[in-house]
């Protein structure tokens, strides 16, 4: 991702959504009183792929707009407007596809329901978090006053720091 974005910090911005996604997963499993199983683990892997794709869409569009001359704030607002529909469509189609699995009963329904529950709860939670967290973290990473400014300490020159240059006689 660092090569795709031409920036080392942008993959970190994209991956900042993963912990929030896990919070949605835990909430969904807790509310439905299901256990973490192998199938729910597979659902987590699928979920992370979908959520990272949504974050990449948002970051990529923001970078395109910034290369066209938009400021950081304008680019984030415009990218949010442009990418909200594809992100919502991905969420709705995935949730719609997983709903029958989550509501299924019987032997196979009980086996696959945790996977569907993880995907549904995690994706619903992560979609809104993505639309709020990614722009905030992106702005934080790209603000020039915060970009490595805390690493450089300004040091006042003391008179003892200035060394005199010996004059040469011609």
Automatic annotation (TrEMBL):
Descriptive protein name: Acriflavin resistance protein
Pfam family, one: ACR_tran
InterPro entries the record matches: Acrflvin-R (IPR001036)
Gene Ontology, cellular component aspect: plasma membrane
Regions crossing the membrane: 12-32, 38-59, 87-106, 118-141
Record bears the keyword Nucleotidyltransferase: no
Keywords of this entry: Membrane, Transmembrane, Transmembrane helix
Nucleotide-binding as UniProt keyword: no
Source superkingdom: Bacteria
PANTHER family: CATION EFFLUX SYSTEM (ACRB_ACRD_ACRF FAMILY), PTHR32063
One Gene Ontology molecular-function label: xenobiotic transmembrane transporter activity
């Amino acid at each position: 991702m660092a090569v795709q974005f031409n920036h080392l910090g942008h993959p970190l911005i994209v991956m900042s959504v993963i912990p929030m996604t896990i919070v949605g997963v835990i909430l969904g499993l807790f509310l439905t009183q299901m256990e973490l199983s192998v199938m729910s683990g597979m659902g987590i892997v699928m979920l992370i792929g979908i959520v990272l794709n949504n974050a990449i869409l948002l970051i990529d569009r923001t970078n395109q707009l910034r290369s066209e001359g938009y400021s950081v704030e304008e680019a984030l607002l415009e990218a949010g407007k442009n990418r909200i529909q594809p992100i919502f469509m991905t969420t709705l189609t995935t949730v719609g596809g997983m709903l029958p699995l989550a509501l299924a009963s019987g032997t196979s329904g009980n086996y696959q329901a945790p996977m569907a529950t993880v995907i549904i709860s995690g994706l619903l939670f992560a979609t809104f978090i993505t639309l709020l967290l990614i722009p905030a973290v992106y702005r934080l990473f790209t603000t020039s006053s915060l970009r490595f400014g805390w690493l450089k300490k300004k040091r006042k020159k003391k008179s003892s720091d200035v060394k005199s240059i010996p004059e040469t006689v011609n």
